[in-house]
Amino acid sequence: MSHYLGLDASTQSLTAIVINTATGEIAVNATVNFGADLPRYGAPNGFVPNDDPLVRLSDPLMWVDALELLLQRVSARGYDWGQVRGISGSGQQHGSVYLNAGYRQTDWEPARCLSEQVRPLLSRRLAPIWMDSSTSEEGREIAAAAGGEEVVSRISGSRPIERFTGPQIRRFYRTDPEGYAKTARIHLVSSFMAYLLCGRDVPIDYGDGAGMNLMDLATGTWHEKLLAATAPELAGKLPPPAPSTTQAGTIGPYFAAKYGFRPETPVIVFSGDNPNSLVGMGGIEPGNAVISLGTSDTYFAPMSQPRTDPNGYGHVFGNPAGGFMCLIAFKNGSLAREEIKRRYHLTWDAFAEAVLERSAPGNGGRSMLYYYVPEITPRILKPVVQFLGPESDAATAPRAIVESQAVSMKLHSAWIGETPERILVTGGASQNPAIRQVLADVFQADILPLAVSNSAGLGAAFRAANAVGNVPWEELFEAFSQPDSSQAARPDPATRDIYAALQDRFAEALKPHLD
Ligand code: ADP
Ligand code: XUL
């Protein structure tokens, strides 16, 4: 019995990953896709279409049905949930679920479907998710009441951000004060899923709790001033924050009776998808960083100190393995690289060849501002695309964008105050050897590609194994998330000064465009 379950409730799907720590095998990897498998919710991409592009809401009952469907499906394939020794999970960050005073009555009947029994507990029919950006006004009000954006950032790890839970709660309070008054419990997506499984009130873990603009990073408690700035009587509506290793409870009678879990199966608090990914990728120790090169690029890394970004671009969350982590999002990632690829009619192989064979580090002074869409880091609201230095062509433009993106990442992660020796890379563009080499040279660190799919679900399963079965992190990383060293890029020390100079020039060029 060395099976541990990680559940990942993401924007478009719910996934179950069961790891077998005795054999190093993945015993279960199953997904329910909200759009395809639950079309009755009318949410092809996981949220309910809305005429207002700023509004993004999802139906929490869809998540409840997805959980049941997923468990049923895996059982139907012959898997016995009674083998599971511990459970944890992951949720898309920031989204919130609003329950009325009935939330404590959890004597759910296994003979009836759970969503029917949860429906009367909702004090708000739909849940705002991380893609919602309708709360700019509320963010400004919270900042004003708390003493400024910097104060909110210093306490909570982020300035008020539209998608963060505090501004979302304030918006609910303002637009539906009655609904807010009826709300007795506010959960994150992660803690809501844990609540369902346990059938009892559960805490919010530090990892995900830090994404609310409400938690004091220094103490791990809700911050009175931020609560007061957000909405009245909020303290009583929030579950307590708790370390990510906390046992939330054991599996509830509903799931034990209906799906065959052992009744005493421990459930470890769920966390956010980014904190779980840090674990799933094996990046929990300072000295590591993860760069995910997907549609957008993200940089996340463990931090030994809860520093905050003085510019207010980055976020600080809890590291589920202890301490803190940062997350920095760069919107112009693959999208911008694809623009260059298209403009010069290149394949990805030709793009890599241009960087590795047809140009050299520093690119003869050619770099670029590559902000095809508004950027989060640094904050640039008006798109700007501009080549800098001598004119670029098909041989030099790929290097111009890759070097510029890499120095921007280095520049905008400097506030973390820790130099990574080893950077794990993932996402579609991490397959590109040229991008890996430029990152190695700019960061003067080893770049190691990691082919882990669903690092959030895997990280959740690791957390269950670590907390319940005392399985050491290293053993889990060794078995399930080994980077591919044969594809590693190593830094060339001769490029250090070239990139230090480029970083300074790039920072200067950015200045007139910053918002
Ligand atoms: P997401 O999960 O955010 O949708 P992925 O991690 O799947 O994204 O990455 C998809 C992106 O990877 C595509 O947009 C594409 O531009 C990029 N990509 C795929 N292969 C390569 C390559 N060889 N070199 C550079 N970029 C690539
Ligand atoms: C992080 C964020 C997203 C969601 C998506 O701040 O908003 O990464 O967690 O799953």
Q: Which SSEs are present, and which pair or pack?
A:
Elements lengths: L2 E7 L3 E8 L4 E9 H4 L19 E2 L1 H17 L7 E8 L4 E4 L14 H5 L8 E2 L7 H11 L2 H8 L8 H11 L1 H6 L2 E4 H10 L5 E2 H4 L5 E2 L4 E2 L1 H7 L10 E2 L4 E4 L2 H7 L6 E3 L2 E2 H8 L7 E6 L3 E7 L11 E4 L5 E7 L3 H10 L4 H10 L9 E5 L12 E5 L8 H16 L9 E5 L6 H11 L2 E4 L5 H15 L3 H8 L15 H15 L5
Parallel strand pairs: 1-5, 5-15, 9-12, 16-22, 22-23
Antiparallel strand pairs: 1-2, 2-3, 4-7, 6-8, 10-11, 13-14, 16-17, 17-19, 18-19, 20-21
Helix pairs in contact: 4-5, 4-6, 4-10, 12-17, 13-15, 14-15, 14-16, 15-16, 15-19
Bound molecules: adenosine-5'-diphosphate (ADP) and D-xylulose.
Structural class: alpha/beta
How many strand elements?
Answer: 23
Portion in beta strands: 15-25%
Unreliable segments of 5+ consecutive residues: none
Mean pLDDT over all positions? 96
Q: What is the CA–CA distance across the termini?
A: 55 Å
Strand order across the largest sheet: 18-19-17-16-22-23
Q: Percentage of helical residues?
A: 25-40%
> How many strands, which pairing sense, and closed or not: the largest β-sheet?
6 strands, mixed
Attached small molecules: adenosine-5'-diphosphate, D-xylulose
Rg: 23 Å
Overall spatial form: globular
Helix count, DSSP H or I runs of 4 or more residues: 19
